[in-house]
């Protein structure tokens, strides 16, 4: 027998592997365009968060229907990948259903479970397509979803549906061939779901069926490899990045905004206080706050690549709900798109960050970041613990401290605080006046 | 505080009044109510009076880290000077800032929100509620402040305080972790909102009114302002009152 199919398979597998390797290196480089940040304290809590939030999908269940449909696809993805292992071994060795003889009856049961999951994926993907395109669920139709993001989402769902059809077609034709006693094909103990589509194929000749079966087999495995490559260009990256993303979650109270030690040094100097680091040479004077992706931290950028654009953040954002331009999802998409732009430019020998553009201004406007109430609803809503607020605050810091570009009313508030130590213009000596009434009443 | 320190006394708690508590005409009543409760119960406390400055919360959230740290460092110097150990405040923004953000600048205190402190006093039997007071049997809804709830995971203390009043606590659709902001956080209190189709406090007030509650309870000066404005905008200010938790307890205690 010809070993041509085996060679072809190895070649396809190697090419896919190489492309994925290149893509992963590229994505890693882009994520580390962000500044360094060490976040590996409390490892136990981090593993636990990852297990609960990423593996256990804990936060998905705030919206029960999509959570259930998503869970079916997720479980199917993990379990059907076991079958892909068999595909790979079969592809390399030229065997057919290599696990069947070892597993006996268990193999048939497993195949039935796989088929059930394939059906579950089909149903879920169709439901998701309906939610996006027919019901037009509001969070999927926001302005930032126009064009590629909407197409990307639909493509993923359609590819998954086609891949599931390939599995069912393969099993249906495979079993007809087995029942006819064609060489190499093994009769399994009744495959329930693919049995339903067998009538489509029973009238065909052995040769046609072998062709369809082989075509479906190749289509499925090549499809999976191609999909794996596609994912690296897509919002679908969340299936992998959700894990590191949740591991590197912010474990501090959500209300806490990180301190800027470089400012502390200057404040202490102004107040004539000794600074701990005064003996050290002054650190390289960077920017205060963030203007572009390289001012953010690598965790911020990883957050952006982990975002699957579900829009639960935006659906909970009080500013967005009341018609303001701010959308936390758009903040994440903008960070990713800018990182992509810079990354591609660098690879092409272009100017990278020095292209005259920046995240703030060309992607995200002040009107957007100024509308944020820092309420943490977006952070709470994200199923994979993305933190859009951290980015918004860093951009605000740049606007306030590098550009002095905050709204006039905020500037007035700053001025009141500088002169009267209160955001309102009251004399500090009046701070205790409220007590007069209490004292009067008590002396009466 | 200065008087107490001068006479060598150290109070059990420092009551951090905050800027709204000191200057906002409506919210001063909350400060007064809380102080009356403390006096009635006999808690030894002090306030910083004119030595208190804004915690810097709105400056930091508007991006002005310099101004925030100037305020913070000055406050920490004052509090450390008096050897303050325990701080109670009615403002979730002050609470969050002193509790979570001052440690990085050398200010380490036990910080408690007044809802938690009131709950402790009720649980310890130090506050004896008359029940059957002004609120008995009334429907009350509680509006979660972002800086108490999501920011610091304090959801139950204010609810326990309300329930102690023998009232019917009704929840809004968006409550606890899903609570909708009043619209004032992140320094929004100090500027007009960006263009949109609606103000956030109106959206939230509509939700609160939809519960059919007789009163809206809050635990934050900004929420108090925003919800009161919202109720006024809906011309319901005669039917639905907005109260801080401390006001409700003080009213029931008859102080």
From TrEMBL, chain A:
Keywords: 4Fe-4S, Iron, Iron-sulfur, Membrane, Metal-binding, Oxidoreductase, Transmembrane, Transmembrane helix. One of its GO terms (cellular component) is plasma membrane. Coiled coil: none annotated. Gene3D superfamilies: Alpha-helical ferredoxin, Transmembrane di-heme cytochromes, Chain C. PROSITE patterns: 4FE4S_FER_1 (PS00198), 4FE4S_FER_2 (PS51379). Residues 298-329, 362-392 form the 4Fe-4S ferredoxin-type domain. GO terms for molecular function: 4 iron, 4 sulfur cluster binding; metal ion binding; oxidoreductase activity. InterPro entries: 4Fe4S_Fe-S-bd, 4Fe4S_Fe_S_CS, HdrC_iron-sulfur_subunit, Helical_ferredxn, NarG-like_sf. The chain crosses the membrane at residues 6-24, 67-89, 109-130, 151-173, 185-203, 215-233. This is Fe-S oxidoreductase. It comes from Cecembia lonarensis (strain CCUG 58316 / KCTC 22772 / LW9).
Automatic annotation (TrEMBL), chain B:
InterPro entries: Cys_rich_dom, HdrC_iron-sulfur_subunit. The keyword Iron applies. Residues 14-99, 140-227 form the Cysteine-rich domain. Keywords: 4Fe-4S, Iron, Iron-sulfur, Metal-binding, Oxidoreductase. One of its GO terms (cellular component) is plasma membrane. The keyword Oxidoreductase applies. GO terms for molecular function: 4 iron, 4 sulfur cluster binding; metal ion binding; oxidoreductase activity. This is Succinate dehydrogenase/fumarate reductase iron-sulfur subunit.
């Amino acid at each position: 027998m010809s070993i041509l199919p085996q060679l072809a398979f190895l070649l396809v597998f190697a090419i896919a592997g190489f492309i994925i390797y290149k893509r992963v290196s590229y994505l890693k480089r882009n994520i580390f365009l962000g500044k360094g940040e060490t976040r590996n304290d409390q490892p136990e809590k981090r593993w636990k968060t990852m297990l609960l939030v990423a593996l256990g999908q804990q936060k998905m269940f705030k919206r029960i229907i999509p959570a259930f449909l998503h869970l079916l696809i997720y479980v199917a993805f993990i379990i059907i990948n076991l079958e892909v292992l068999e595909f790979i071994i079969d592809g390399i060795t030229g065997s057919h259903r290599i696990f069947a003889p070892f597993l006996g009856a268990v193999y048939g049961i497993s195949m039935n479970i796989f088929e059930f999951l394939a059906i579950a994926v089909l149903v879920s993907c169709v439901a998701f397509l309906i939610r996006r395109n027919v019901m037009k669920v509001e969070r999927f139709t926001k302005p930032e979803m126009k064009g590629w993001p909407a197409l990307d989402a639909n493509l993923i769902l359609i590819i998954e549906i086609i891949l599931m059809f390939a599995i069912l077609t393969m099993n249906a034709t495979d079993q007809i061939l087995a029942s006819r006693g064609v060489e190499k094909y093994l009769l399994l103990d009744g495959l329930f779901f693919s049995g339903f589509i067998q009538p489509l194929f029973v009238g065909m000749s052995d040769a046609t069926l072998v062709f369809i079966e082989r075509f479906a087999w190749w289509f499925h495995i090549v499809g999976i490899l191609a999909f794996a490559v596609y994912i690296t260009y897509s919002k679908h990256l969340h299936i992998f990045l959700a894990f590191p993303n949740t591991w590197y979650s912010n474990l501090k109270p959500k209300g806490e905004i990180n301190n800027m030690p470089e400012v502390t040094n200057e404040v202490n100097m102004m107040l004539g206080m000794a600074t701990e680091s005064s003996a050290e040479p002054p650190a390289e004077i960077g920017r205060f706050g963030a203007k572009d992706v390289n001012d953010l931290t690598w965790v911020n950028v990883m957050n952006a690549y982990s975002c699957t654009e579900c829009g639960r953040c935006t659906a909970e954002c009080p500013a967005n709900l009341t018609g303001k331009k701010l959308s936390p999802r758009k903040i994440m998409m903008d960070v990713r798109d800018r990182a992509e732009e810079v990354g591609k430019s660098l690879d092409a020998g272009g100017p990278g960050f020095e292209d005259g553009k920046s995240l703030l201004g060309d992607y995200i406007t002040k009107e957007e970041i100024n509308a944020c109430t820092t309420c943490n609803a977006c952070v709470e809503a994200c199923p994979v613990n993305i933190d859009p607020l951290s980015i918004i605050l860093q951009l605000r810091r740049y606007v306030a401290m590098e550009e002095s570009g905050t709204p006039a009313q905020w500037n007035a508030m700053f001025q009141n605080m500088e002169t009267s130590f209160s955001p309102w213009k009251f004399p500090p000596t009046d701070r205790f006046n409220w007590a007069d009434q209490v004292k009067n009443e008590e002396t009466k | 505080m200065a008087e107490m320190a001068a006479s060598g006394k150290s109070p059990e708690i420092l009551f951090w009044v905050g800027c709204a508590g000191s200057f906002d005409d409506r919210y001063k009543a909350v400060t007064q109510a809380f102080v009356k409760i403390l006096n009635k119960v006999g808690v030894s406390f002090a306030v910083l009076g004119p030595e208190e400055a804004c915690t810097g919360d709105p400056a930091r959230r508007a991006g002005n880290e310099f101004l925030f740290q100037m305020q913070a460092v000055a406050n920490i110097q004052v509090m450390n000077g008096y050897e303050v150990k325990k701080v109670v405040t009615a403002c979730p923004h002050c609470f969050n800032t002193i509790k979570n953000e001052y440690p990085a600048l050398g200010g380490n205190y036990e910080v408690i929100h007044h809802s938690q402190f009131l709950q402790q006093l009720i649980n310890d039997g130090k506050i004896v509620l008359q029940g059957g007071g002004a609120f008995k049997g009334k429907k009350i809804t509680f509006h979660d402040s972002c800086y108490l709830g999501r920011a610091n995971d304090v959801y139950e203390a204010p609810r326990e305080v309300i329930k102690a009043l023998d009232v019917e606590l009704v929840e809004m659709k968006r409550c606890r972790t899903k609570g909708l902001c009043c619209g004032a956080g992140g320094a929004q209190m100090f500027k007009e909102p960006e263009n949109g189709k609606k103000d956030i406090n109106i959206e939230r007030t509509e939700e609160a009114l939809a519960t059919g509650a007789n009163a809206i309870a809050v635990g934050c000066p900004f929420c108090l302002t925003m919800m009161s404005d919202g109720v006024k905008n809906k011309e319901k200010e005669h039917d639905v009152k907005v109260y801080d938790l401390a006001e409700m307890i003080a009213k029931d205690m008859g102080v």
